[in-house]
Automatic annotation (TrEMBL):
The protein's name: DNA mismatch repair protein MutT
CDD domains for this protein: NUDIX_MutT_Nudt1 (cd18886)
Source species: Brevibacillus choshinensis
InterPro entries: NUDIX_hydrolase-like_dom_sf (IPR015797), NUDIX_hydrolase_dom (IPR000086)
Residue span(s) of domain Nudix hydrolase: 1-132
One Pfam family linked to the record: NUDIX
């Protein structure tokens, strides 16, 4: 069951990330998102979460598929993932403190740097693929002792953005 959404908001090469005050991914720089409400479509959910957490009113976001995880052999959850371009004329000054954490623009190179321990371990493994394809995949991660041991990506033949 996919319970969450996540959106990577970008403006050219930089991304608006949230350093989260609370679990999951507490203390790490992650995309913006949250839990789907009952009956809510993934796109509506992610647009709502972006508005609530950043104040940015997006007209739309591009569906990129599902990120899911398997902890110690049990499939425990996942999130519908989106990428959205913030128009150039939208000025969003950071860092800024919000209820959920600290928002700041971070360069893609910083986000993907192999020495960067400040982003969720799975982000550098799925985000480059999402940025380089228009196809939607399920990115599935296997964890043991809270570390990724392997991952796989499978093409989604019927993306489910509006269900
Ligand atoms: N990169 C990454 N993000 C994750 C993982 N697990 C996980 O839940 N997330 C994301 C999905 C959501 O965007 C976010 C968790 O949402 P949340 O619990 O804060 O949801 P919410 O704002 O609706 O929560 P609440 O305050 O109402 O309880 O973290 C993960 O393993 N990697």
């Amino acid at each position: 069951m996919i319970k969450y959404t996540i959106c990577f908001l970008k403006q050219q090469t930089r991304f608006l990330l949230l350093n989260r005050f609370h679990p999951p991914t507490m203390g790490l720089w992650n995309g913006v998102g949250g839990k789907l409400e009952p009956g809510e479509a993934p796109l509506a959910s992610v647009l709502r979460e972006v508005l609530e957490e950043t104040g940015i009113h997006l007209a739309s976001a591009e569906y990129k598929g599902i990120v899911s995880w398997d902890l110690e052999g049990e499939s425990t959850g996942g999130m519908h993932a989106f990428i959205a371009e913030v128009p150039e004329d939208v000025t969003f000054a950071t860092p800024i403190l919000v209820d959920e954490g600290i928002l700041a623009w971070k360069e893609l190179d910083w986000l993907l740097h192999p020495d960067n321990a400040g982003v969720p371990e799975n982000v550098p493994l799925f985000l480059p693929a999402m940025l380089s394809t228009t196809e939607c995949y399920q990115y599935h991660f296997y964890y043991k002792n809270q570390r990724i041991t392997s991952h796989e990506m499978t093409l989604l033949s019927e993306p489910i953005t509006n269900r």
